[in-house]
């Protein structure tokens, strides 16, 4: 009976669930932490796909902000003093390493080191 329930869940999974699961598997193969398992104040290494790239208006302190998704959760990454970093575009996969700051609204890593991963084919 349990096996039948597992099969049913597999047949009824949405495309989004399937893609999230595949992305988690790919990121796990890179050897990083899942975003959902990271905690405030920890030094983290996470990998994912850039979903959103945001540039602050020129009147404010320059900053490049991205949203990184690994299939388990989202993380905001902010580089202060930068308006652009070559190679960081929507859809790009990357690894970031830095100290995680959590608020009730978001998980954020400021000025992390990063590695761009090869583009998916």
Rg over CA atoms, rounded to whole Å, is 16 Å
Low-confidence stretches: none
Task: Report the sheet with the most strands, covering strand number, pairing sense and barrel closure.
Answer: 5 strands, mixed, barrel
Report the principal-axis shape.
Answer: globular
- CATH-level-4 superfamily name: Nucleic acid-binding proteins
InterPro entries: NA-bd_OB-fold (IPR012340)
Overall description:
By secondary structure, the chain is of the alpha+beta class. Helices cover 22% and strands 37% of the residues. The longest helix is centred in the first third of the chain and has 16 residues. It starts with a helix and ends in a 5-residue tail after the last strand. The model has no long low-confidence stretch (mean pLDDT 84).
Tags for this model:
OB fold (Dihydrolipoamide Acetyltransferase, E2P); 121 residues; single chain; 6 strands; 5-stranded mixed beta barrel; alpha+beta
What is the topology?
Layout: H1 2-12, H2 15-30, E1 43-55, E2 63-69, E3 74-80, E4 93-102, E5 107-110, E6 113-116
Parallel strand pairs: 3-5
Antiparallel strand pairs: 1-2, 1-4, 2-3, 4-5, 4-6
In short:
The chain has helices at 2-12, 15-30, and strands at residues 43-55, 63-69, 74-80, 93-102, 107-110, 113-116.
């Amino acid at each position: 009976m349990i096996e039948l329930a597992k099969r049913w869940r597999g047949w009824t999974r949405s495309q989004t669930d399937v893609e999230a699961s595949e992305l988690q598997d790919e990121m796990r193969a890179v050897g990083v932490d899942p975003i959902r398992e990271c905690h405030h104040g920890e030094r983290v290494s996470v990998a994912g796909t850039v979903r959103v790239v945001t540039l602050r208006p020129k009147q404010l302190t320059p900053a490049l902000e991205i949203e990184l998704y690994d299939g388990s959760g989202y993380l905001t990454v902010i580089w202060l003093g930068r308006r652009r970093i070559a190679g960081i575009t929507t859809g790009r996969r990357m690894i970031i390493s830095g100290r995680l700051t959590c608020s009730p609204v978001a998980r954020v890593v400021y000025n992390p080191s990063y590695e761009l991963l090869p583009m998916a084919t």
